[in-house]
Write a structure and sequence with these properties.
The chain is mainly beta. Helix content is 6%, strand content 63%. The chain has one domain: Beta Barrel (Porin), CATH 2.40.160. The two termini are 25 Å apart. 31% of the residues are buried. The N terminus is likely disordered. It holds the Pfam family Porin_4. It is found in: Cell outer membrane. This is Porin.
């Protein structure tokens, strides 16, 4: 049994390169580490006209993590992560996204940070969001529950006699913007309880106001998630349920099932995603995806991923109903 590879499979899509970061400075009280990833991704799918196209979805992530001891039990932390993506054109100007910019304090009580940082529901959707590329179509989160700026967040990780409890809570203040949408105040909270025999339960909830052009509340987005997972030997299985309001539709319900198996240095993963607009009884997502990821070592992996799209092109167009095939290679440092 390769527990390290199973852990990588469980967090494959969300794992950052912090675990592989290299310490570039340290003294008696402080340290600084630099890490990241270089990832080449070729996506093959049909466009709106039905022609097969290959799109370059390559990306680079860089992160800097700092830590300094304040007292014997309290420490200060700071973290930055940026991502550069290629548009795949010959005159490529690319795009830079500052994914994380935050700082705070930590101790036996947990960590409290402020800035652009994760919300509290990502750890719930991560229970099934384990693929190298596809998946997580039923795991869409509101901004306050995902990753947003102007965000005050807490996380605590507690050992309960061999069992483990992770608790997250965050409050996103008014003013954050996403794709020209202006948000009011929002919050999210979640918890995952893991038994020492490999069974884990997770649940979380989030709300956020969406403002109109005059600064008044136009609607309130709501997310509710429940998750369960089980790890035994080289096998991992998990399920996710979502019930949301005013997100991609007025009323949305969906689920994702995921399974992973580790064979030597290769991890095989399959997921099923279904998301339905309950207001209009329209499928938003319906797909089966499979992938295989081979870990040559802790720094380098390659993968192939295929999504069988079950949506009807009459409803969403040829591009929206197209299957996808992805080849990728990733170097972590």
């Amino acid at each position: 049994m390769n527990k390290k590879l199973i852990a990588l499979a469980v967090a494959a899509a969300s794992i950052s390169s912090v675990a592989n970061a290299a310490e570039v400075y340290s003294d008696e009280t402080s340290s600084l580490a630099v890490g990241g990833r270089l990832e080449a991704r070729a996506v093959m799918a049909e466009d709106a006209s039905g022609d097969n196209q290959v799109s370059d979805k390559s990306r680079v992530r860089m992160n800097i993590a700092g830590k300094t001891d304040i007292t014997d039990t309290i420490y200060g932390i700071g973290f930055y992560e940026g991502e550069y993506t290629s548009s795949g054109t010959s005159a490529d100007s690319g795009n830079v996204n500052n994914r994380h910019i935050n700082a705070g304090i930590g101790g036996e009580f947990g960590q409290v940070v402020y800035g652009k940082t994760d919300g509290s529901l990502g750890m719930i959707t991560d229970m099934t969001d384990i693929m190298s590329y596809h998946g997580n179509e039923a795991g869409g989160k509101i901004a306050a529950a995902d990753r947003t700026s102007n965000n005050l967040a807490y996380v605590g990780d507690f050992d309960l006699g061999g069992n483990n409890l992770v608790v997250k809570a965050n409050y996103a203040f008014e003013g954050a913007k996403d794709a020209n949408v202006e948000y009011g105040d929002g919050y999210s909270a979640g918890a995952i309880f893991t038994l020492d025999m490999g069974l884990a339960f997770g649940a979380g909830y989030g709300e956020q106001d969406v403002l109109d052009g005059n600064g008044a509340t136009d609607e309130t987005q709501k997310n509710a998630f429940g998750g369960i997972s089980y790890t035994i030997g080289d096998f991992y299985v998990a399920g996710l349920y979502q019930d949301s309001r005013n997100t991609v539709a007025d009323k949305v319900r969906g689920y994702e099932f995921a399974a992973a198996y580790t064979y030597g240095k290769t991890v095989f993963v399959a997921t099923y995603n279904y998301l339905e607009d309950k207001t209009d009884n329209v499928d938003v997502a319906d797909s089966i995806a499979v992938d295989a990821t081979h870990y040559f070592n802790k720094n380098f992996r390659t993968y192939a991923s295929y999504k069988f799209n079950n949506l009807d092109s009459k409803d969403v167009g040829k591009a929206g109903a197209s299957d996808e095939f992805v080849l990728g290679a990733r170097y972590d440092f």
